[in-house]
Structures
1.
Amino acid sequence: MILLLCLLLASPAVLFAQSVQNDLDQKLMMGYQGWFLCQGDGSPANDWRHWFRNSNDPSADQLNIDNWPDMSEYPQTYATNLTYATGSAAKLFSAYDENTTMIHFQWMRDHQIYGIYLQRFLGEAVNDQRFFKIRNHLLQNVINAAQVYDRHFALMYDVTGVPEEGFYDKLINDWEYLVDTYKITDKPEYVKQNDMPVLAIWGMGFTHNEVTAATAQAVIDYFHHSAQPKYRAHVVGGVPGQWRTLDGDSKTDPLWASVYRSLD
């Protein structure tokens, strides 16, 4: 028995299958928009983005949220024009601050949430240098927090409102920039499925978006086949509810059926 075991271990003909990295299996992933900003937070926008309808007026009649967040654990906060019943200033957090991201990732660790899809709003990232810088800053915050709290992340493009013209180049160029500049897919914290980096794209196929089925298919084919290996990805789609029937909130072009089914 011992001799046989030694022969098996020494034999070059005995192959051991390597494990495949499937981070999404039975994992809880959250969408992470990171779009709440505040005046005075140091961001290029310097306004109350998404907190208030008028982003320069942090008053009660401009509130753009359904519930006021519990602010007790945030180390950095910003005073609005509102007050609590005690008379003290009601304050909010900014996603631009790294310590905000750290708190969120600490909560995920404490409550066994595996990771996030970091949303990157393609329209604002490629058309407005302020938000290109903000989105990149938030990405670095996420990279740092994931390392500190042993959490994971993948990128999710939200392509809502991006015109058909130039769509392919804008998305591909931005992805290649992030892979080359931030080395995101080399990070051990970046989510992989079937050993491929995971990339989510939200918004293709919805009736209110311009991108055509042909362009959407070209994007998916790029990530599956035509890209250099370092840019390839396992593509997750955020698609319309009626993707199977091509009606309702989905575009009706029959080509969309094959687009949806080519997603991973």
2.
Amino acid sequence: MMTWLDGSDAAAVLSTLNLEEQYLLGREAGRTMSRIHAIPAPEDQPNWTQFYNDKIDRKLTAYVRCGIHVEGAEQIIAFIEEQRGLLKDRPQSLQHGDYHCGNMVITKEKMIGIIDFDRMDYGDPWEEFNRISWCAGVSPAFASGRINGYFDNQISETFFPLMALYMATNMISSIPWAIDYGAGEVDVMKREIKKAMDAYDHFQNVVPKWYRR
């Protein structure tokens, strides 16, 4: 598929660029995501509070039943339970569904393109940040730019706690998801969870260490 696109894998290209270039591309990725989220969800969408709380319940149940323990899982689950109230009255919009640098390309002109729209859905636009740790693992500058570009530097005080909730939910659900793909994928997810736990000081903070204004 990549050979048919005017660009190269963003995750590979970012490491060859300087920090300013990485940051500016992140800002553009953030602005692009905000344009996607400008498309509202249909009015008949299920209530987000109930929908996502049910989703959390399913993911926590799947984790408990999968039989694989992750170090720090108790802290992750406690944080999720404490933050459920943030889901109240959240808006919904179109979502890309898998928005991270692995689904982006960078052209020779250093412009960014978004690919793989096969998971498009509707939901809280801020849920779309639940995979940003994959970007931060490649380039903290790019990940920071994504946030700053999305909000044009006007970041709501509720954003970081809610992003942390969505990331925590994604973390705990990644283990039962990975089982079908083998022990190697489970180990990958365990490493990613450890990185995220370090970034959040085991959820003692809601702003990840890699973020820079």
3.
Amino acid sequence: MNLGYARGNRLNQQFDFLEEYQVDEIFSDDNRSYEVFQDPESDYQRLLDYTEPGDCLVIAFLEVISRDYQILLKFFDELEELGLEVIVLTSPELTLVEWREVLLWIDKNDRLLHPRLIKLKLKQEKSRNKDTYSVFSKDKDAKQLYRDVMWQLFGKRKLRVIAEQKGVPIETIYRIQQELKRVKLAGILAMCFFLAIATLKITENFSDNLWIQIVVCVNTTIVILYNTLADDE
């Protein structure tokens, strides 16, 4: 079972990430401080009580837990004792063992901070994949894979499923999804533009009043946009 947890800043963004990943349940301690993890009445403790070995804790950012790598090490130790795994949606996909290795290495190099290391690694990975997997890619296979991912996203398949099937980092799948959303929005706006013109022409046959024509045109456009975007959500 995948259980989402949100806390701290950018809560709306965290909820968007977790809902996009389609976790089984979301727990949240809102904007409470790090001390919340010691509170037996907190949602975090309720989440731990709810879990079973083999479950996975899903968070949007490492900072949801802490910016202190010592605290993160204790956090990963606690998850390991409970037999849980962790997924950080905005970071490279690592196991608990790999996360611990990264943080222990940082612990021995006091001049580095874990957010800088993780963000740098993620940024490099995104930059490389962005050049490789795109509609303008020079690699024929990569371009075909990009189109396949687009079609699967259009069919509303889960990001993680596509990433595992295609062997592509989930960060890349998420980027392609955002590109697809922009393409769909552009198509919707273009459709509304042409329908608005058609509506205006049709209205001219029934009334010569310019204001009536404008009102009908605007209302039609709003109805089309509302229904299309609502269905898209």
4.
Amino acid sequence: MKNYKHILLLFLLPYSLIAQDSTKDPLQKYWKLRVNLSTYVAQKEGIDIDPKYIYYDFMNLPIGIPFNYLEYIRLDKYQYVDVDNDKLILPAYQAYIDMKKAGSIHNAIINIKSSYRNKSTQVYMMNKYGDQHAEKPGYSEHHLLTTIDIRYCGENTKLFLWLLTHAHEYGWIPSYYFRKDSQIRKEAWHWRFVGKDAAQWYRSTWENEYKAEIIRLEHI
């Protein structure tokens, strides 16, 4: 049996290389590492994902692939803040507050419905709602303290329109809305803080899909 964790640690997440990549074009940044991640996912998960849909967030964790985050992250090294009866790590919290303030000026009221989930909570969610509505334990972005479900943010709302137009400016992306590989239904309310660099990549990569949704929402 292949030791996928060993392969990943050696070849797929060399943080020093990530930090040293000075490529300015976000569509080309970390390209070799993204190709490796694509190969890894094909071998481990049996899913083929074009490297152009794969990237790294500000924590050097993958975006755009099924990934067992709990095997590789140590959240105890991050400072977190209590917010809306939930919690976020400090950079995500600061970006959330900035986005919330900006939205309120335009009557886009942003409040957190839920955020962090531990493994036990994710087991409960999957057992209750099934794999069309919840990721496998370990794979949920809600484990990261960087992901929120936004209250009253349906796919036909003005709030969703505002977020699609502006959230990337604050480092947030609708990471389960445009994913090609995910079995999870589209979730307009699910937003992950990835940092401004990664959010710019995501917005550029899915530009046509963003524009189509924005046009659709403007005509509702």
